[in-house]
Amino acid sequence: MTEKVGVLGKKSAQRTGVERVVNAPLPTVYGKFQAVGYLDHDRGDEQVALVYGEIGTDDVLIRLHSECLTGDAFGSQHCECGDQLDAALRAVVAEGAGVVVYLRGHEGRGIGLLAKLRAMALQAEGLDTVEANLALGLPVDARDYGVAARILEDLGVRSVRLMSNNPRKREALVDHGIEVAEQVPLLIPPCENNITYLRTKRERLDHHLPHLDAVVSSS
């Protein structure tokens, strides 16, 4: 906990860490979730965990979903994010219990919306997603999963079955004290508009995407 000096010279506490702010029922087309809202005092981001059913503490099926306005809201086929969010929500409902943590501030692997659009423009000119970020002088992946781990801890989750193709997410959760009992593939059939992007994720970002083998061999 740090302190700051107020306008009258008195010290006032400045909150740090992740605070649960609200818990509200959220009926969706997938099922009825509880939307648990958090404030990340360190970064200023508002976060939400969608909780379905009685999740317990161990081997909870979860998805850490990085915010993607273009994919999640606009149905962009540049990536598979919107389809992954849809699949993850359906999966926890089918499981009977689970959590989807929607991580704001992760747009474009952490570089922000406008920077992501600039990177997409460079990709349209022939660069891959890694090259585009580097050409803009930006990190390839600037995401931090500490807030996700703190949210899971607040929900009482000790170990998870992580829906992700990205081994770095698993490593990040483990580094932040959350046991990953299993990494569950979340594979979305590629389309013409995202096959190059997905190949780059596999070849340069270590994503486990075995379903691309058939597409690669037939191209």
TrEMBL record:
Zn(2+) binds at C68, C79, C81. Keywords: GTP-binding, Hydrolase, Metal-binding, Nucleotide-binding, Riboflavin biosynthesis, Zinc. One of its GO terms (cellular component) is cytosol. Binds 1 zinc ion per subunit. Residues 19-185 form the GTP cyclohydrolase II domain. Its EC number is 3.5.4.25. GO terms for biological process: riboflavin biosynthetic process. Pathway: Cofactor biosynthesis; riboflavin biosynthesis; 5-amino-6-(D-ribitylamino)uracil from GTP: step 1/4. Its cofactor is Zn(2+). The active site is at D141, R143. It is an enzyme of class 3 (hydrolase). Catalyzes the conversion of GTP to 2,5-diamino-6-ribosylamino-4(3H)-pyrimidinone 5'-phosphate (DARP), formate and pyrophosphate. In the N-terminal section; belongs to the DHBP synthase family. This is GTP cyclohydrolase-2. It comes from Streptomyces cahuitamycinicus. The lineage of its organism: Bacteria, Bacillati, Actinomycetota, Actinomycetes, Kitasatosporales.
